[in-house]
Amino acid sequence: MQGYFFLCIRTRTFIFIEFGSACVSTEIGMAANFIGGAALGAIFGELLRTVVEAHKTAAMFRDTFKELQSTLLSIEPLIKEIESFNKVSDKQHETKQLLEIIDNGQRLVSKCCKIHRWDYFRKAYHVKKLHGFKKSLDRLYQIMQAQLMRDVKEVLFETKEISLGIRRLGLKEGSSKGNGASSEASDVGSFKFPEPPDVGSFKVPEPRREVVGFEEPLKELKMKLFKDGVSVIVLSAPGGSGKTTLVKQLCQDEEVRGKFEHNIFYVTVSKTPNLEVILQRLLHVIDHSGVPEFQSEEDGLNHLECKLRHLALSPILLILDDVWSGSESLVDKLKFKFPDYKILVTSRFSFRRFDFTYCLKPLNNDDARTLFRHCAFLQDETPCIPEEIENQVIESCKGLPLALEVVGRSLCGQPVAMWRKRVKQHAKGLSILHSDAVLLAHLQSSLDTLDSQAAIMDCYLDLGSFPEDHRIPATALIDMWVEQYELDEDDDAIDNLHELSDRNLVNLVVTRKDDEREADGCYNDHFVMQHDLLRELAIYQNGLDPIDKRKRIMVELSENNFPNWWLEEKQQPLGARLLSISTDETFSFNWGCIQAAEVEVLVLNFRTKNYILPVFMAEMEKLKVLIVMNDGIYPAEVGNFPLLYSLSSLKRIRLEKVSVPSLETSSLHLKNLRKISLVMCNISGAFKKGTSKMSDIFPNLLEIDIDYCDDMVELGEGLCDLVQLMKLSITNCHKLRTLPEGIGKLVNLDVLRLTSCTELMTLPETIGCLSKLTILDISDCLSILGMPDQIGELHSLKKLYMRGCSGCNLPPTITKLQHLKYVICDEETAYEWESFQSSLTNLRIRVDKEDINLKWLHTFS
Hints:
Layout: E1 3-8, E2 13-18, E3 24-26, H1 37-57, H2 62-85, H3 92-113, H4 120-177, H5 183-189, H6 215-225, E4 232-236, H7 243-252, H8 254-260, E5 264-270, H9 275-286, H10 297-311, E6 316-323, H11 328-333, E7 341-347, E8 356-359, H12 365-376, H13 387-396, H14 401-411, H15 416-427, H16 437-444, H17 454-462, E9 472-473, H18 474-484, H19 490-502, E10 507-510, E11 512-513, H20 515-519, E12 526-529, H21 532-542, E13 552-557, H22 564-567, E14 578-583, E15 601-606, E16 610-612, E17 625-630, E18 636-639, E19 652-656, E20 658-659, E21 675-679, H23 694-697, E22 703-707, E23 727-731, E24 751-753, E25 775-777, E26 799-802, E27 822-825, H24 827-834, E28 844-847, E29 851-852
Parallel strand pairs: 4-7, 4-8, 5-6, 6-7, 13-14, 14-15, 15-17, 16-18, 17-19, 18-20, 19-21, 21-22, 22-23, 23-24, 24-25, 25-26, 26-27, 27-28
Antiparallel strand pairs: 1-2, 2-3, 9-12, 10-12, 11-29
Helix pairs in contact: 1-2, 1-3, 2-4, 3-4, 4-5, 4-9, 6-7, 9-10, 12-14, 13-15, 17-19, 18-19
């Protein structure tokens, strides 16, 4: 073997160049090499696990440990990247220093866990030490990034020097041989210096695990990649859903490789990206001849655009993996106007501003089983675990690939007893988050960006109040959040919901997309669904504090089984502002007593034909919102209903699938009540005349929302006494045939919705008395054949919905509606309205096709 040795002065390593082959054996000292290989990764991982466990158990240091955990998670990707080089460092003093920092941190965290709760002096001292350790880690992160940039430049410098040396050697060999140069010398003269090690892994790595269940997502993403006019594609899902694995698999696809060939570049962005480092790495991978010095980000972007332009004769794919909220501008900066230049983004967040977003769903049962077995059993091993136990373990992972991997590996090789233990924990209501620190840390990292947005974090934590797999009405959340957090209006609550949806912490489902109604503040068709593990994470986070210190308490009761704190003789008063109680069919309704005077929102979930309201409700003097939701099939009879009238602070009541007794029988007044929502209830007796006037019981009621109440044939006259009412919504009540003439007394009514009351025959003539009415919605009231002449007296009317009302004749008095701006209707109705446009100069007719979404039926199935 012939060749030459070179000594690199900067990295203090030898480089051997062998003639006769196009290869170079090299040991280049880059930033990765100043870390002690795999040993560092193991020690760092142990520190992270220790901090995660300490965050769960050491209550007095919880906030500090949370900050420390967030810092470690931000460093972890760089540690993994450095570790992936897997080379032994020659910079032993730097390795030693780093390991000492981690070791000292490990011992410090362990000490903190042993300090007694009442030892405030030692607590203060160790909090200061923990902050010092966190600062050391922050400095370490900066040093590692700076070292990485420095070594990129060093390697490029040495590459140039060695290339020049090789060329000189080739010339020397060639001149000594004359015209009869041997093939060896010829090989040296035409030698192409190979790529130095990939700094930042810009070549797409192959998936590290078995890839299952991604056939449909792969097909969808390929369609968008090959489609003209789509430049940025976002692959979005919660952490642990397999986004990165899917993208790596996509890049191994033959059609994708055939289209983009060598023009596929892969960048891990992470939580705190450094655009300058990314540009350095990209420029290095594109052009090995050297990276030019640039003075600013803009200069670097110009250089990158120039280099990519030379490659743009063929399609280019740039993959930006793990982009966090706030980094959208980085994606924008990397967008260039080349034909067939695509950017594929993976993120835990949903970036609606880009061309297309694909939301990755959990694995179905069959694919979840395949992945789990790949991790839980050795190759060619015949499973000896009973199928029933295996099924229950798999079910606890909720189709999340990360959970299936973590749980599968933790049980691999374990005896059946360990599997049974896991099943028993799940049966007791314990989430897998209690037993898998790695999975917990990964999911918790999705919440890190909410630390600076306390309002959004509060809303996320409230979602644990509803049962698993429950389709949560957005209107219920609006009721909770507007009153609990004193928001100015319903739209503020919806904005928070969109924030959670953009972060993939919830799935916002709109069953009937209608921008007009949304603009009017109608959200009856908006629902929230949540991945089970994200719901369990919310419950887990809420349970970290002692019971008397929690802001929210979520309880699930069965038979006579109560949590220990509920049964204590000397109960501590609860400080929670939100209390959620879910009961099943076996619950005895022997409520006992708890002290919950601070509760402002009470959510009661059940699924029985009969239900008894807890007596201790009467002591909730601060209760503002009551939500009673029956998850059964038929409306339930509710005992202790008169308790509601003792809740003097109550502002909003929402009842679902409940038989509502007469609302006019109480001598007590709910003077603060502003809104009543009745959904899928039996209300035939609710508005019948009783011993009291409804206006006396609800003197300040502003809004009534009645939806899908199938037994409602007529609206009682008693409701018409609520002269202060501003919004009346009666929708999807298919048996409603008439409205009372007294409806004209509702002189303050601003919105009247009668959507999909298919048997409603006519509007009463007194409707003309509603002088303040601005919105009227009679869409899909198929039996209304004509408007009364008095419709022309609605001088404040601005918007009229008439979809599905093609059989409704318009009277001539319609020309009096001079303030009418919008009519939203179907094509046939629009044709009739066009004849009035010459008289109604401000009128705009909108023919909208409703977007009915049935995809939610398959969500999380």
